[in-house]
Amino acid sequence: MSRILLAEDDDSLRGFLARALERAGHDVTACADGDEAVTFLDEPWDLLLTDIVMPGLDGIEVARQAAAKHPGLRIMFITGFAAVALAAGEKAPAGSKVLSKPIHLREIVSEVERMIAA
């Protein structure tokens, strides 16, 4: 079972993502924003799945802090802002993947499983 730290400020999407990933057999800790997510960074994680644009710490900063504490951590961003997705590649830790919203839950679960298996 993979451990996934999820940071998403949209309550509905966070709930849907957490349930879909848990049904796929993952252990998910869901956080409402980046500030909450960084409080869990001392724990071991297989994947960080984070929105980019959130109140407080954005997903890029959460990913930077996570990568500093856990070199080699797999990081996946989800965003509804195409321009942010394009710019994220320049600022995000190496090896990060960016998925653009809207995206089907099955596609996110498949991408998560691909990243974890890599």
UniProtKB/TrEMBL annotation:
Keywords, in A-Z order: Phosphoprotein
NCBIfam families (alphabetical): RespRegCpdRBruc
Listed name of the protein: Response regulator
Keyword Transmembrane helix: no
Pfam families the UniProt entry points to: Response_reg
Keyword Cell inner membrane: no
GO biological process: phosphorelay signal transduction system
4-aspartylphosphate modification, residue list: D51
Start and end residues of each Response regulatory domain: 3-116
InterPro entries: Bact_response_regulator, CheY-like_superfamily, Sig_transdc_resp-reg_receiver
